[in-house]
Amino acid sequence: MMTAIAVTATLLATPVQAPADPLTTEIGALDAKVFDAYNRCDLPTFSGYFDPKVAFYHDTGGATFERDAMVDGVRKYICGKVKRELIPATFRVYPIKDYGAIEEGEHRFCELATGRCEGIAKFVMVWAKQDGIWRITSVLSYGHRAAMPAEQRSAAGK
User: Fold this and answer.
1) Of the ranges 57-71, 83-97, 100-114, 143-157, which one carries the lowest mean pLDDT score?
2) DSSP for 40-107?
3) Residues 6+ apart with CB under 8 A from 147
4) Please, which of 43, 84, 121, 148 could form a disulfide with 144 given CB 3.0 to 4.6 Å?
5) φ and ψ of 27, to 5 deg
């Protein structure tokens, strides 16, 4: 039989996940939609999430300053080759007053041919909400590195 002190100590020691705020939930859902289209190579849908003048900075690939060039890079280097998986514990969203939101996190890239997830990178995306529609205006993709063995498992393979 547990005493009131033991019950209280147990409750205090149990980690409680705080519910996500509405903005984090909304941007999280948008991230899932953007990268579902990316992973399926549905480029018309993928493209629609980006501002036509999106600024995309990639530490190993350089910079592009228009949606069509960025989508062309996905067509050439991603479609049929790689899928992206968000690392949920790294996902954060911050509001931008009277503009939109900043999304940051890390994601892993998995080779479709082998199922191996060997690359990880950090990202920041700036979302603007105009007339009720969210669009990505800026992307930073950086810190690309090899995944450590414990990081190589696909979320789908767990």
Assistant:
1) 143-157
2) HT-HHHHHHTEEEEEEEEETTTEEE-SHHHHHHHHHHHTTTTEEEEE-GGG-EEEEETTTEEEEEEEE
3) 108, 117, 118, 119, 120
4) 121
5) -70, -35
